[in-house]
Automatic annotation (TrEMBL), chain B:
Membrane topology: Peripheral membrane protein
Keywords (A to Z) from UniProt: Cytoplasmic vesicle, Golgi apparatus, Membrane, Protein transport, Transport
Organism: Solea senegalensis
The name this protein goes by in its record: AP-3 complex subunit mu-1
Any one of the GO BP annotations: intracellular protein transport
């Protein structure tokens, strides 16, 4: 059947145009003509105007292709539809085209222009798909076009198109290897790409085109390590395998000292070769390994450590190939003490599909030879079930055998005993072999095993007996003198055993040890002589062998028998046997003609033979990279890259240092996690340029590893190698002494925090040159936001004790501010949500903190009075809200925040500010004015927002879609957000016609209120209602520049959307309170929160020498607390 | 990497082929078919074969062989894992993965394969993304398609691949938002003749079904995460959160997916829910044997054991069986020599029993090994390791989803040696 299918296929696969398919279905003769008709109507359908007909035709054609039928004669009709509008038709045409283009090169060229047009399409997905199909068409003539397309796509804006370009590289290479040099250039360029989307594909291209150009990796090594966790699964496998090879060429063997100590013999054997040209000193070194180890302690390269650390989490991948890739990386690269971590993950894979088990067990078998200890704890996981497929059973057996040692051998043998009874005879045979190997390896159990095997000789299954005989033979060879009774026993078996191999083994044993069984052996020969003609060839050879040996030792009894046997053999059909007989006759029977050799016949035949070594077929397989196809087959597969030996001395590690580029490539589309890392990566650069001291930096990476994150990413961009090493070492030691250093870390973190404001104010000057730097800084922030919130939290609880120490509160306020800054720009999503959560918890914490504060007079009266007051004031506030912006709004310019940076936004930059205008569609919303600037060269269309994600209760009124924003233009829009009186961010997607950006708007607490007009009397009355828990007081020292009335008012109104309570009025209508001295005025401000209309009252009472007291009264304590901080900051800066 | 793919049914017919590079004649499959003929069971065909010019890597799933042709070095697991992913995708799309269903949907299958591999390198393997590009067939849609001539290829270009959460479809909307989690634990055990545990461990998996609008960010925490020894995650799970806090934090894919698999640490003793008393013997004289199996509850944590089933692979010599079951019924397949006793619910008061005689081929030697018993069972509402989900929180969306967690314990590879 198979042969005929091959024949069919050749017909079907390679037949030229229009050749009918004779071979395909010989049973139904009519198929030939109907085929032709069918093709005709397909052509008709393809030519029609209706998409549905075309689609139907294409579906039928693709079905033919799928079945392997020849549809090549339809090529002209199909190719016409390549420009069809219908997407599905188009897709199917592509499928067809790629399949048959190679056969129909000329016609295929007709389609090229369509793809060339596609390459210029504004939509990235269309560009990518055009490149994909174009590069899949295997027509040599279009190589230059492909080359051009790839080059262009490699610098495309869209990472998806760049990924497609990476895929196209090996395609072009296989079509025309001449292009290699040019393609390497493209690969080099794409390797520098910083998106996870591209990384896997370009490394794959690298592996297929130029795996020997390891030098291209240097600059990208750290980046690849850091991106690894976010690359898609398949890319991870390729990258890890490549990095394993890379590491082998660049780093020192981490086990160098141990391996020399342990496998000293072996090493020196190799070593002597390598070192022949080296001086004597080196040889001395080898001799005194221990001293060398002392003299030259091994220090792991930080990059080596980086690789090991960043790959480790991938052991938890769901993808078996990724787990295996990491496992082999650890096996080949990790220090011996660390390799153990992979065992658990590999054992987990044994639960997977049987094919996965098969491959994993092969690799485990190889590993167990080198590192037995690693898998010993999982011994039982390799126990065999009767339902396992045979190949799995045999592999598990192999692993069990490799794991056997003095301590566990008894359990293993007991387990083996149950296996021997299995119905699967191949498996039983393998078990017997395994027992034999255990017996040779572990001296203690040799006799037990031998006895067990001898018992098996009486097994009813012949195969079992035969296998036992073969194994016993090998074992006996080790100590024959002790076991003559076993040999006798086996001699008796020869009557019954029919398996040739077993018979041959017994005969060999008897011949070899005929001195131990002098009486039986001639008799055996007699029997054998009788049945000689009916024996198998190997048995015949052994009979001749036995005869010769007996003739030499006991010629009296066996001379005639031997001659008889030799005569029979002389006329045997097999030339081997005839040859052997002739040869032996010459050797043992002395004649005149026989030469000198016959004198030595006895020595030749009865020489002591070394016992066979029973070793695992997996021994030394680890010279192949584990997990590879070559390892599995134990033969080099095509395209296999040898795993290089460790270098004697480490090559220069500085090649991996990356200079910081001023222009940041357009890597906007990166996954969130990656972004986080990018930020981390940039951090050291940033802190470097800011002149941050060395220790602080290493402290930074320390805190990283303490947080359980992959650290050291910092070393990527750092200017000098030594520095990164320093931080590396720091974090390494940190791992062990985590807890000890925790305290220290916190302090350092605080120090860092304090450093921040300086940097921030610098960046706020926002000159064009600083744009870049600012970006770095921004990026470096969210990474910190976690730790910031943490420490913010901590400090908050400190403020519970309500110290008025200004230093303390200052740092607190800064924390807040920075947090806001960090969140008001497009940050990485997960980080943000994390942060959000923690924030929420924090604000809850606030409440808890303040709850115990005693407030006896407040509550009962409050609830009664406030309700009437609210209604009372409502009318007022309404009219005020119209009035106030015009009259009382601060004159200073509104502070604007960045929503989307122009680089992240691919040319679109977005800023927002709180306009403090009432939002007319909904009074409960805060108006946010958004300013869009299109810095790109192309127009941006359909700007709108989507996918709004809010905390419960919050609402958003979207801005109307902006249909067109021409290049270089700026436009503004207003949206409303009901923040529900919380500073939770509103998250949404800003969409253009091509892209979506995740952005969030977080309001400063001061924007959550609207000003109201109150007289001083009213103010005091209200203030009286909001005492106790609702009142927060802070002492402060006013900034030098800020001691006059005007600045104070201005600063407060900038920080919060409040209106000033006219102060002169208190003289008129406030008899109870004596007016304060004129040189120490009191400033009062009032407002209401936007959503719940809770009153917010702020009082700043100035005193001598800039001292002041700030009081905030607000029903919403959280708002109050936050407002205090904001105003404090505004006044003290 | 992967050069070509052939789908072969269990009789050896090649019913689908797809090439990603130049065309390879299907004659290459002959090497495989030869080996397959020799192997008694299809499971015994080695997954990796070497031919003079190619390497063949195959998997066997649902009575189908997925055979891929490789020309150069590639990690075998890479290919195997990918082929399983292909089979999973078919399963996901068509509900089952059989020859007839693939033949019926050959165009969709072809489109899928086209998207999954580019030049032999995996391109889109996440089902959420694939579904955006190629809509899975439904009865309604196929009716509509035939009437209107519209297609099952998404007319919107897929954006999922470009998003920074590549496993999730964009713009998901549901009227009922729900998230269900099934904690399923399997007991793998080998018991010896006397009922002693030779080896036992618990493997668990959390299967999730999330139908949530927008971009929900979920956090799932356990009461006792220390139980978990070794875990593997869906790519959506943030590994760092797990490392530091032992909570699962993730933005889920849309629909069904496996959130995590775990292994319960070996320090914990494994509760074996049932005991098995068995006596199978073959007489030296006469051609018969005796069989007597009783199953009773052991450590069931007060829960009902359901779906109890015993499978015995009898020695070849056993011709027929004559048994009586006190509960449930049994079948004996003469061709495969498999005895299946379907018990159903386990009655703790009256342990079910199966006994009777086995008739052995006359003249054949007495089978020397007693067949092992494979036990299947199910216990609802119990995770045998004691793992408990503490809470599920959702961030990033304001609606309240309906949440549910279900526990189940099953017998995995549960074998009693006799």
């Amino acid at each position: 059947m198979s042969a005929s299918s091959a024949f069919n296929d050749e017909k079907g696969g390679s037949s030229s145009v229009g050749e009918p398919e004779y071979g395909h279905d010989p049973a139904s003769g009519g198929i030939f003509s109907s085929d032709y008709k069918r093709h005709d109507d397909l052509k008709e359908m393809l030519d029609s105007n209706k998409d549905s007909l075309k689609l139907e035709a294409m579906k039928r054609i693709v079905a033919m292709v799928a079945r392997g039928k020849n549809a090549s004669d339809l090529f002209p009709a199909v190719v016409k539809n390549v420009a069809c509008k219908n997407i599905e038709v188009k897709k199917l045409v592509y499928v067809y085209l790629v399949r048959y283009a190679e056969e129909q090169q000329d016609l295929a060229l007709l389609s090229i222009s369509t793809f060339q047009r596609g390459l210029k399409d504004p939509n990235q997905l269309i560009r990518a798909s055009a490149l994909r199909v174009l590069s899949s068409i295997r027509v040599t003539i279009i190589v230059p076009i492909m080359m051009l397309a790839i080059k262009e796509a490699a610098s495309d804006m869209s990472p998806y198109v760049r990924k497609t370009a990476a895929h196209a590289i090996p395609k072009l290479y296989s079509l025309d290897p001449e292009q290699k040099d040019q393609l390497i250039e493209v690969i080099e360029k794409l390797l520098a790409d910083k998106t996870t989307l591209v990384a896997g594909s370009v490394v794959m291209a690298f592996e297929e085109v130029c795996p020997e150009r390891i030098d291209l990796i240097h600059k990208n090594y750290r980046k690849l390590c850091n991106l690894l966790i976010d690359v898609e699964e398949w890319g991870q496998v390729v990258i890890i395998n490549m990095l394993t090879r890379y590491a082998r060429t660049q780093f020192l063997n981490p086990n160098i000292n141990e391996s020399l100590l342990e496998e000293g013999g072996e090493k020196t054997f190799y070593g002597s070769e390598e070192d022949e040209d080296e001086d004597d000193e080196d040889k001395d070194k080898k001799a005194e390994v221990a001293t060398m180890a002392k003299r030259k302690p091994y220090v792991m390269d930080p990059d080596h450590r980086l690789l090991l650390r960043n790959t480790k989490p991938l052991l938890q991948s769901r993808n078996a190939a990724v787990v295996m890739a990491v496992a082999q990386l650890y096996f080949h690269l990790a220090p011996k003490a660390e390799v153990g971590v992979i065992a658990k993950a590999l054992v987990r894979l044994l639960r997977s599909h049987s094919e996965v088990q098969y491959v994993v067990l092969q690799n485990v078998a190889t590993m167990t030879i080198k590192r037995r200890g690693m898998f010993e704890p999982y011994l039982k996981s390799f126990y065999i079930r009767s339902t396992d497929p045979t190949q799995i059973k045999v592999l598990k057996l192999e692993v069990l055998t490799n794991l056997a040692n003095e301590t566990n051998i008894s359990t293993i043998l007991r387990e083996f005993q149950t296996y021997i009874k299995s119905m699967d005879k191949d498996f039983v045979a393998a078990t017997i072999q395994a027992i034999g190997r255990c017996a040779t390896n572990i001296g203690e159990v040799r006799d037990t095993c031998l006895n067990g095997l001898v018992q098996l000789l009486s097994n009813r299954d012949e195969l079992v007996v035969a296998e036992s005989v073969v194994v016993i033979k090998k074992l006996l060879q080790m100590q024959p003198e002790k076991h003559s009774d076993i040999i006798k026993h086996m001699a008796k078996l020869i009557d019954n055993i029919q398996v040739p191999m077993a018979r041959a083994s017994i005969l060999w044993l008897i011949g070899e040890y005929c001195e131990h069984v002098p009486k039986i052996s001639p008799d055996v020969l007699r029997k054998m002589a009788k049945s000689f003609t009916n024996e198998e060839d190997i048995v015949k050879l052994q009979i001749i062998n036995l005869a010769a040996k007996l003739y030499l030792t006991n010629s009296k009894q066996t001379k005639l028998l031997t001659q008889y046997v030799l005569n029979l053999a002389k006329y045997d059909q097999n030339y081997d046997i005839r040859d052997r007989a002739r040869f032996i006759r010459q050797l043992i029977v002395p004649t005149e003609k026989s030469g000198a050799l016959s004198k030595y016949a006895k020595k030749l035949f009865l020489a002591l033979k070394p016992a066979p070594v029973l070793e695992s077929p997996f021994k030394d397989r680890d010279h192949f990279q584990l997990g590879s196809l070559s390892h599995l087959l134990n033969a080099k597969a095509g395209g296999y890259q040898e795993l290089p030996d460790w270098p004697e001395a480490a090559p220069d590690p500085s090649v991996r240092n990356v200079e910081v580029k001023e222009s940041v490539p357009e890597w906007t589309k990166c996954s969130s996690r990656e972004k986080r890392k990018e930020k981390k990566v940039e951090k050291p650069f940033y802190s470097d340029s800011e002149g941050e001291s060395g220790p602080t930096e290493s402290a930074d990476s320390e805190s990283d590893s303490a947080n359980g994150s992959e650290s050291v990413s910092g070393s990527e961009v750092s200017g000098s190698g030594s520095e990164s090493e320093e931080s590396e070492e720091g974090s390494e030691s940190e791992e062990e002494e985590e807890e000890e250093d925790e305290e220290k870390d916190k302090k350092k973190k605080k120090k860092e925090l304090k450093k921040k404001p300086v940097q921030e104010s610098e960046s706020e000057q926002s000159s064009e040159e600083e744009e870049e730097e600012r970006k770095h800084e921004r990026k470096s922030k969210p990474r910190k936001s976690d730790s910031e919130t943490e420490s913010g939290d901590e400090e908050e609880s400190e403020s519970e004790s309500s110290q008025s120490e200004s230093d303390e509160s200052e740092s607190e306020a800064e924390v807040k501010k920075k947090k806001k800054a960090a969140q008001s720009k497009p940050p990485a999503k997960p980080v943000k949500t994390d942060g959000k959560k923690e924030k929420k918890e924090m604000s809850l914490l606030d409440l808890d903190d303040f709850e115990p504060a005693p407030s006896p007079q407040v509550t009962p009266v409050n609830s009664f009075l406030s309700s009437s007051l609210v209604t009372d004031l409502e009318g007022l506030s309404l009219s005020d809200s119209v009035l106030s912006p015009a009259t009382i709004a601060p004159s200073s310019a509104l502070k604007s925040y960045e929503l989307l940076h122009r680089i992240t936004g691919e040319g679109l930059s977005v800023e927002y500010c709180f306009s403090r205008q009432p939002f007319s569609p909904d009074a409960n919303m805060v108006a946010v004015q958004i300013q869009f600037t299109n810095n790109a060269t192309s127009d941006t269309k359909n700007l709108h927002m989507e996918d709004v994600k809010l905390q419960s209760g919050m609402r958003v009124k979207e801005f109307p879609e902006i249909e067109l924003l021409p290049a270089g233009e700026t436009t503004t829009a207003v949206m409303g957000i009901d923040f529900c009186d919380s500073t939770q961010a509103a998250n949404f997607q800003l969409c253009t016609h091509t892209r979506k950006f995740f952005v969030s708007i977080q309001p400063p607490v001061g924007e959550l209120m609207r000003p109201i007009f109150l007289t001083e009397n009213e103010f005091k009355k209200e203030q009286g209602q909001l005492m106790g828990m609702n009142e927060i007081t802070e002492r402060l020292t006013l900034d030098v520049k800020c001691r006059n009335e005007h600045t104070i008012v201005q600063r407060v109104t900038t920080a919060a959307n409040l209106s000033r309570v006219p102060c002169g009025s208190d003289k008129e209508c406030s008899p109870p309170v004596p007016p304060p001295p004129p040189d120490h005025p009191v400033h009062r401000f009032a407002g209401r929160t936007v959503t719940s209309s809770s009153l917010v009252l702020v009082t700043v009472a100035t005193k001598e020498e800039g001292a002041a007291q700030l009081t905030v009264n607000c029903e919403k304590m959280v708002i109050g607390t936050m407002l205090v901080k904001d105003i404090l900051q505004a006044l003290t800066q | 990497m992967i050069h070509s793919l052939f789908l072969i049914n269990h009789t050896g017919d090649i019913f689908l082929e797809k090439h990603w590079k130049s065309v390879i004649s299907r004659g290459v499959c002959d090497y495989f078919l030869e080996v397959k003929e020799k192997a008694v069971e299809p499971e015994n065909v080695p997954p990796v074969l070497q031919t003079p010019h190619h390497y063949l890597i195959s998997i066997y799933r649902d009575k189908l062989f997925f055979l891929s042709v490789i020309q150069t070095e590639v990690p075998p697991l890479f290919v195997i894992e990918f082929l399983h992913r292909v089979a999973d995708t078919f399963q996901d799309y068509f509900g089952e993965c059989s020859e007839s269903i693939i033949k019926d949907n050959v165009v969709t299958v072809y489109e899928l394969l086209e998207e999954m591999l580019d030049n032999g390198f995996p391109l889109a393997t996440e089902s959420n993304i694939l579904k955006e590009m190629i809509k899975p067939p439904t009865i309604l849609r196929s009716v509509v398609n035939t009437l209107t001539g519209s297609s099952n290829v998404g007319d919107k270009l897929p954006t999922g691949q470009l998003s920074n959460i590549p496993w999730r479809r964009a713009a998901v909307k549901y009227t009922n938002n729900e998230a269900y989690f099934d904690v399923i634990e399997e007991i793998d055990a080998i018991l010896d003749k006397s009922g002693m545990t030779v080896f036992a461990e618990i493997q668990g998996v959390i299967e999730a079904c999330t139908r949530l609008s927008g971009m929900p960010d979920l956090t799932l925490s356990f009461m006792n995460p220390r139980l978990l020894d070794d875990v593997s995650f869906h790519p959506c799970v943030r590994f760092k959160r797990w490392e530091s806090e032992r909570v699962l934090s993730f933005i889920p894919p849309d629909g069904n997916f496996t959130l995590m698999t775990y292994h319960v640490s070996s320090q914990n003793l494994v509760a074996i829910p049932v005991y098995v008393k068995q006596n199978i013997s073959f007489f030296e004289t006469g051609s018969c044997g005796r069989l007597d199996i009783t199953i009773g509850p052991k450590q069931t944590m007060g829960k009902m054991v359901e779906g109890l089933m015993v499978t015995v692979h009898m020695p070849k010599a056993v011709l027929s069986v004559n048994l009586t079951a006190s509960q449930g019924n049994y079948t004996y397949d003469l061709a495969t020599k498999v005895l299946v006793w379907d018990i159903g619910k386990l009655n703790p008061q009256k342990p079910p029993n199966l006994r009777g005689t086995l008739s052995v081929q006359s003249g054949a030697p007495r089978p020397e090994e007693n067949p092992a018993l494979d036990i299947k069972l199910k216990i609802q509402q119990l995770a045998i390791s004691g793992l408990k989900v503490n809470r599920l929180d959702m961030y990033g969306e304001k609606y309240k989803p309906f949440k549910g967690v279900k526990y189940m314990t099953k017998a995995g590879k549960f074998q009693v040696r006799t």
